[in-house]
## 1
Amino acid sequence: MKKNISIIIPTLDEKENINKLFYEIKKNLDNQNIIWEVIFVDDSEDNQTVNEINKLQNIENNICLIKRFENRGLSSALIQGALSSNAEYVIFIDGDLQHPPSKIKNLYDEIRNKNLDIVSASRFLETNEFLHQKRYKASLFVNYLLKKLFKINYSDVLTGYFIVRNQFLKKNYKKLSNIGFKLLLDIILTTKNTIKYSEIPFKFQKRYSGESKLNSKVLIDFIALIIDKLIGKIIPARYFIYSFIGSLGVIFQLGVFYILQFFLNFIPSLLFSIILTIFFNFILNNEITYSDLKKRGKLFYMGLIKYYFFCSFGAVFNFIIAKMLYDNLLNIYFAVLLGAFVGSVWNYSMNTSYNWKK
Ligand code: GDD
Ligand code: MN
């Protein structure tokens, strides 16, 4: 049967919220003359959330589950859920009850009555008693900056609670940056000249159970998304993240070198600083730059070995250049710095092509 709405719920360790959320949705949508289904997209490492969903599936008949293994990241989970839906509209809602299901009907009515592409639920259209005042202000400020930067007119482009016409999404999803947490922003900036949208107010709730997944990685992805939207057509966003990690590596290497040279001569200090920096960068790149292709378990060690292999060539360049400059120049830090830079450019291209490949 053709559904009116698919409700996409992304989950990352949300086992205690599954039941409550589903029955809240059901309570709000049953007897409304709406044919609906829920599609969970789970990226958790263990099976606890999946087990909860499976239990529900034994009782209810309108629940789908997409369990992912290799792909990760919120935006990509949402898109994957939406692509599996043949409903007329798709709604995205968080799996922790911070988005009240009572607004689903309002979103649906608004998008249909006005024949729009997107209706989002905004946190800033009515007074909101926020738990975290700091985050509220930060959100408001970032929204303001984005509005100015991209000349858009939404009150809340960071919200994750919105409804979209399925045909509209299917037409445009390939053009998305597909990075990080903020799918709505990605869609708006990709389609901003053609999109028909409006907003309705909602009150952001307290997380029901579990912990927020917001971390520094989400922040870096957010910056990468913005950069990608600004100049992504020329240089890929992943390159920027890689360079950022690379520059952390440079600082790390200089620090390690500084300490080591109290105990060792120039050459052994340089060598050890390079070896340690490669390890440091592997961990960060695996967590952040290539988090969508993150290596775990056995693959982690295989990747590390490969990384050392590719980087050993980079390290040889690093070493030769630093040594050459050291022999000709007086400033040893400048020598180390330039050596590290040349090495890192080499490493990026090799690892992107042969280590974390799709
Ligand atoms: N499948 C999947 N994969 N789900 C994820 C991932 C992931 O990598 N990361 C997070 N999630 C899920 C969480 O399980 C939760 O259901 C939802 O996405 C939102 O994650 P939270 O960690 O609860 O986000 P938040 O509370 O910090 O962010 C909220 O505020 C933003 C507005 O500033 C959310 O409402 C966002 O949607 C919203 O944009
Ligand atoms: Mn949340």
## 2
Amino acid sequence: MSVIITVAPTGPIATKADNPNLPTSPEEIAVAVEGAYRAGAAVAHIHLRDADQRPTADLDIARRTMDLIAERCPILIQMSTGVGLSVPFEDREKLVELRPRMATLNPCSMSFGEGEFLNPPKGVRRLAARMRELDVKPELEIYDTGHLEVCLSLLEEGLLAEPLQFSIVMGVRGGMAATPENLVTMVSRLPPGATWQIIAVGKANLQLTAIGLALGGNARAGMEDTLYLGRGRPAPGNLPLVERAVQLARDLDRPILNVNEAAQALRLP
Ligand code: KMH
Ligand code: ZN
């Protein structure tokens, strides 16, 4: 079974002080995304930063980043509406007005490390409905079993359309621990026809990405999820992380889908 590789080059938390190779400006992000595309990524999960590297939902920065990426390659842009813990939900949700092909939908509020990730039920419903109107495919980010149940009720209410695409997020303090048992449980609970990828944050990134691939999931790679290629080995950029995921998929006999094939597999509107 073939596989979709997503690159997540930036994320909401790390800065260049943590790893100087983290792309944060629109130009740096576009260059990193093009490299990942050439290595086999079909989807780019995008977080935006302002000039001081702070997470932002600024629409001009978003538009510029999307344009720069589109000038370089036809990768499917998946805009993060998670953005960053400091940005209000009402600002985050406006990003879908730019009509990226996909965007994340975080169904629940939760503790997130030392912070709070606020996704109020009314706002989540409003955002899901707007994404459906705009034909922006949701990437459903589930950090715990209850988050899946909320997604299933959104589906029942007609706010989501099948096939659902899930990111099973593990290793965030406040969500599921990054263990194979939790991954298997989550996968076994997904509705028939759903597609999924594992997002393993931190130390377990490589092992759980490999297990996810072996179980038939898609894969995500990039500096949002880990800044290291191995213990004590800071990643020199996003490219080696993406190349590693591509190699893992090939070693497991999972052909990599190109952009058009991935759009079809995800049934993007
Ligand atoms: N870094 C993820 C664990 C999103 O992009 O919508 C949380 C996140 C959500 O960034
Ligand atoms: Zn993200």
